[in-house]
Amino acid sequence: MSETLNDYLERVAGRPDGGLRFIDRSERARWVGWAEIRDQARVVCGGLQAVGVRRGDRIALVFPTGRDFFAAFFGTLLAGAVVVPLYPPVRLGRLREYLHRTARMLTATSAVLVLTDPRVKRILGEAVALSRPRLGCCTLDDLPRADGELVPVEPSDLALVQFSSGTTVEPKPVALTHRGIVAQTEILNGFFPDTAEVRQSCVSWLPLYHDMGLIGCVFPALSREAELTLIGPELFVARPALWLRAISRYRGTISPAPNFAYGLCTHRIADEEMDGVDLTCWQTALNGAEPVAPAVLRAFVERFRRWGFSPAALTPVYGLSEAALAVTFSDVRGPFRCLRFDREALAGTGTAREVADGREIVSVGRPVPGFRLSIRDEAGREQPAGRVGRVWIQGPSLMEGYLDDPQATIRAVRDGWLDTGDLGFLHTSELFLTGRAKDVVILRGRNYAPDEIERAVDGLPGARTGCAVAASWLPEGAEGEVLTLFVEAARGATDDELAVLPELCREAVLGAVGLAVDRVEVLAPGTLPRTSSGKLRRQEALRLYLAGELAPPEAVTPLRMAKAMARSGLAFARLRWSGPGDGTRE
Amino acid sequence: MREDAILAGIADVARRHLDWQGPLTAEMRLVEDLRLDSIRLLTLAAEVENRFRVLLDEADEAAIETVGDLVAIVRRKLGV
Question: Are A467 and A536 in contact (CB under 8 A)?
Answer without folding.
Answer: yes
